[in-house]
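Encode chain A's predicted structure.
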Amino acid sequence: HVQLVESGGGSVQAGGSLRLSCAASGYTVSSTRMGWFRQAPGKEREGVACIGRDGITMYSDSVKGRLTISRDNAMNTLYLQMNNLDPEDTDMYYCAADPLGFGTPTLLRTDFEYWGQGTQVTVS
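Encoded structure for chain A:
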């Protein structure tokens, strides 16, 4: 049974930082590509960052240079370091795993099968 549990969201002022965590059980975070997505009410879920099995990363243009995806294999946890946050970053953030993702990173939502429940980030 695969379970992804996000944490670390909250409220922060513009220019501030947060670090999101995604603890995995029943799944090894380093085995395939994993990603972070975000979604606002009434909008489509969009990919913001992905890390491949080989550690190569990919970011959306809107977050490049401000967000950093990483993983801790020993803790079996995925992270998203968020710096210089902007009110437009206010969203629900989800981590996701692609069990067939042995190749390059991707931000395509449809490639990911397992999802966490999300953690809210609010920037004012």
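The chain has a mean pLDDT of 97.
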